[in-house]
Amino acid sequence: MQSMYRSCLLIIPFHVREMLRRIKARYDVDSTPKQMAPSDEEFSPLRPSRKADPKTVARFWDQLKPQASDADQAQIADPATVEASETYGANIENFIGTVKMPVGIVGPLRLNGMNANGDFYVPLATTEAALVASYARGAFAAGRSGGVSTAVLYEGVLRTPAFVFESLLQAGQFVDWVVENIDALKAAAEATTRHGRLVSLEPFIDTNIVFLICRYTTGDAAGQNMVTIATDALCRAINSDCTVPIENWYIEGNFSGDKKASALGLVTGRGRKVSASVTLPGDIVEKTLGTTVDAMLEYGRVANLGSHLSGQLGAQAHYANGLAAFYIATGQDAACVAESAMGVTRMEPRGGDLFCSVTLPNILVGSVGGGTGLPSQTAALNILGLKGVGHGTALAEVAAAICLCGEISIVAAIAAGHFTRAHESLARQR
């Protein structure tokens, strides 16, 4: 029995054997070590440039040839893009053109929100066939049910600088100093921005290191750069005036959850926390979604268990699909999807009807700043009617509502057994 037990421990999983087989098939005892050794061959690096004009674009393309053909250049540096090249200069370095993505439209998405109220046509930029159709189906079901209720519950973009001290005692003394000088630190931060406000500052001590959780409201902007600049001013004021010796400090201690999923972001939020909900009548579920309330609830219980067992932060089906498409179309920072796509989807019976809701604590969108001023993204925001000052919170509510539509549609499709068929007909066999 013991020998059998030992032999079981030595079993090599099939996928490991297969991986080794593939590696060995590519390995050559003479050439592979040379191929993987450090190279001292000369190379000519591209010189970083913020300049964006037709002449600079042409210079970069000359350096890319012969790997890139004239046809490649024509696709990325098309005449309209090159003519408007200076428009893009504030958003990128080493500008060579633009990449075109398919943009689909979902709507009307009917919202009964605190900030977004009315019917909205929502542009989504994606290369995934079936995605727009799925979100459009969810929006149709929600619209037939009276529309989606939305509200921004809380807002505040985090930046968490870190300060290093010699000892725990000095870390505690530092926190005491920060509390005593909070008004001056707030003034230093807010002097850098017309729209940003430091609304809270919370110390977090780990022995000799102190993280300062700085939370800001950012007006109608997503505010990533805004809070970085403000926090830098706050930190420099601390470094200049603090009576406790500081060994080192960093503008971000990797505590805030910036562009990554984190438990802190799930609980406290980073950006705008938004809830969206709708109650779908049973007959609407059957007529528009091709399934039943009971079937959706039954699958929802299994999916919720799966999210817990797999260790998801939150419990949801696919927020990232809708958010990525929405962020790209409207000029948001697409990398923020890493933290924005967290939250909780709920589906509960209401008599014979189905209550559906989503809560996303980290919606990072803006109707001004960032990529919102680029030509295509400006057009997308104009389609929504949410371009410019005064629309940041409404844009966040639209983002949450579109996620809700996606949750409704995918749960219905899987519950009814239509998920694979839809992707075959709309994607593979298109």
How does this structure look, described?
With 430 residues, the protein is of the alpha+beta class. The chain has three domains: 54-91, no CATH class; 103-154 and 262-428, 3-hydroxy-3-methylglutaryl-coenzyme A Reductase, Chain A, domain 2, CATH 3.90.770.10; 161-250, Hydroxymethylglutaryl-CoA reductase, class I/II, NAD/NADP-binding domain (Alpha-Beta Plaits, 2-Layer Sandwich). The chain is built from 19 helices and eleven strands. It has helices at 2-9, 14-26, 31-35, 54-64, 70-76, 79-83, 85-88, 131-144, 168-180, 182-190, 224-241, 263-268, 282-289, 293-309, 319-330, 337-340, 375-384, 392-416, 419-428, and strands at residues 103-113, 117-125, 148-159, 162-164, 197-206, 209-217, 248-250, 271-280, 314-315, 343-350, 353-363. Strands 1, 2, 3, 4, 5, 6, 7, 8, 9, 10 and 11 form an eleven-stranded mixed beta sheet that branches. A hairpin with a 2-residue loop joins strand 5 and strand 6. Helix 8 (131-144) crosses helix 18 (392-416), helix 14 packs across helix 18 (392-416) and helix 15 runs antiparallel to helix 18 (392-416).
